[in-house]
Amino acid sequence: MAQDTTVPKLNFEYWLDKAIEWGQATTLESQKDVYLHLPQLQQFLHQVYETLKHMDSVVAIQQFPLIGQLLGRLCWNPFVVGYDESQKILMWCLCCLYSNEPQNPVELKANSWIRSLLCHLLSSSKWESNEAETSMLVSTLGYTSADYHCCLVKNMVLSLVTELRRNNFHGLNTEGRVSDSRVNAVSHFCLPLITLPDLTPLLETLLCYHGGASKEILSSEFLEAVNEAFLKKKISLPASAVSSLWLRHLPSLEKATLYLLDQLVSIPLNSLEEVAYVIKESCLPQAASHPAIFRIINEIFKNALLETDGALEVVTTIQVFTQLFLEALQNENKQHKFPLKAYFPYHHQPLVTALFKRPFELPTTYWSQHLKHISDMLKALVEDSSISSLADLFEIWFLVACFGEWLDIAVEQLLKAAVEPDALLWLLAFYYCPQNENQQRTQTMVEAQAVYGHLRTLFSCTVLSVKDLEAAVHSVTDTEQCCNQHLITHLLTSFLLFSSGGHMVAQELIYHIADTSDRSKEVCSLLIRTAYRINHDGEEKQRIVKLLNELLQNLKAGF
Predict the structure, then answer these.
(1) 316 FRET partner, CA 20 to 30 A, in 67, 140, 152, 415?
(2) Domain boundaries, the chain
(3) Do residues 373 and 353 make contact, with C-beta atoms less than 8 angstroms apart?
(4) Could you give the residue ranges of the DSSP H alpha helices within 11-104?
């Protein structure tokens, strides 16, 4: 065996001969020769990489026609791959040969070959089945094939992560930086390996990586594949990486939001806890802490609401999402918080600020006053002559609809507290009848005031009969105006839950309303929202909780 191993710079012929001679280093003689040459081989590979990284892939292959054979053979030699940083350098050399925009079948085939080599380097599946191929060294060290290659993958990922993170600290200093095209190539190579658990740190680093280019440097195929794997729970990523993914790739954010809506519309609505769990798992409320993400999600919700003609499932999703978004926003580090105007830039900011207040942030004795403040601001906006188009009116209505928790509290306050009712009734009339065409909202107010006055006189009665509530029931079942029915159903349902004697006739009346006016879904939604709010607030209302569960169980059994 020759002892003089000094070779000329980039002497591909010499190292290809060596690689052919070594094979996969299965004999003792070939193993000894590999050991002898490993440091110089790594130095040679490093020189190759430093040369290739400044060249176009096509030019590199033309100038060094033997490079493919050499790298291919070295990638299959476990002694070479397992030595120091050789595996990482091999990987980067392969990256340099990858064509980002292949122009012909030859380049496409070369890309496919490079991907297969990288899959081989990262996956232990082929070697696990044949212990002999791990070579004598692995066995001598006491490793199994699976252990060895698992460590190999982790070390390779660690090396890439370290290099990319170090690269981010270079700033505008281009010397020593990994080129954006190389990072793009790495994102391509990750495609067949995205669901490999050990690759997760590299995925996270790539998603949070920003180079010097003004345009996106990661491949769109990579971003789409990561998003798909995340949505289908095939991979787990930290919230920061998911937010970065959606910020840099709008189609992925749109797909994630529509995927959430599809999930929630397709599952039976049994409790808002289930809805909240699915929404939290989507990571969308946390990501929406960034205003750009929040505004896009909100636009998708608006379109979904319009396309489904205000479907209850969509409204419920929006309202629960908003609550979870507010929770995530409050948990954010104050240093990274954005002003409220960033989330609703075109709305009346005092109104936005008032709606953003969570009920538990205020004393219950202040709820009515806060709701009156919201109603007064809203009325001034709606009656402003500049709000002329339906689009402007819808934007205001949608803002109020997002914070539906306050609307439910408004109904409860009307019945339970000694409040001036006009402001709160107007707030509810606007929600259920935003357009005042042909004085519909005005008529709704008149009917709601009459029903409210009747219910208020009965609120403290400990004994009630169905006959006592006939006027309110007829208002729901007889009125032709849909928005009147919605508002009065809301008032009557809350009365049955919170009044002293309402629980005595709740089963019969709610079943009657749902049966005669086909409002079972609406009544169920009101009951589920109330149950969620009571449980969420942690208030001691055992009687109401028990009644809610009974009503829901009977309603679902009957329809």
Answers:
(1) 415
(2) 12-211+218-229, 251-342, 349-558
(3) no
(4) 12-22, 28-52, 57-63, 67-75, 78-81, 86-97
